[in-house]
Amino acid sequence: LLHLINDVLDMAKIESGRMNLNPEKFFVHDLLEEVTSITSTLASEKNISLFTEEDSDATVQLFADRTRLRQVMINLVNNAIKFTDQGKIRLWTAQKGGMITIRVKDTGMGVPPDKLEDIFQEFTQVDTSTTRKVGGTGLGLAIAESIVSRHQGRIWVESEQGKGSQFSFALPVRQQA
């Protein structure tokens, strides 16, 4: 209930234009490690491997709202945990072509192709029967998209049913410290 209230309050702030960003300089890799630490208990309970990929660039620095980007990452990782029954969840970051990309890749159930466009809309859930089993309000990805957009970035998903999903977001290098 508290999570739902916080999500509704965040959506109200976003829609009213009152969500303020408090940028600071940080290493993105440190953020990934922090998110892994926060969410590792949930992953362990489901016997899912959660880690940052070895080829993730530990030198990427960003000047952005660390707290809000942590919120995005926790949401993406928690979703990956919810919809993955076995396997692994991998986090990754790199800088290329003027963009800093952050990725969460899982081996979960995947998203049907006809639902890929809709999942970033408020209160949208891919399958209400599945969502009822694992929980969720349909606000997390809408909030994540709004936060990434406020950082002049974009978020997207690639998925194949039965093989998993990869949620990525990219922020322009000009956000970099």
Give an account of the 3D structure.
With 177 residues, this protein is an alpha+beta fold. 38% of the residues lie in helices and 25% in strands. The chain contains five helices and seven strands, in the order αβαββαββααββ. It has helices at residues 2-16, 28-45, 66-82, 128-134, 140-150, and strands at residues 24-27, 49-52, 61-64, 88-96, 99-106, 154-160, 164-172. The strands form two sheets. A five-stranded mixed sheet has the order 2-4-5-7-6. A two-stranded antiparallel ribbon has the order 1-3. A hairpin with a 2-residue loop joins strand 4 (88-96) and strand 5. Helix 1 (2-16) packs parallel to helix 5, helix 2 packs parallel to helix 3 (66-82) and helix 3 runs antiparallel to helix 5 (140-150). The longest helix is centred in the N-terminal third of the chain and has 18 residues, at 28-45. The chain is globular, with a radius of gyration of 15 Å.
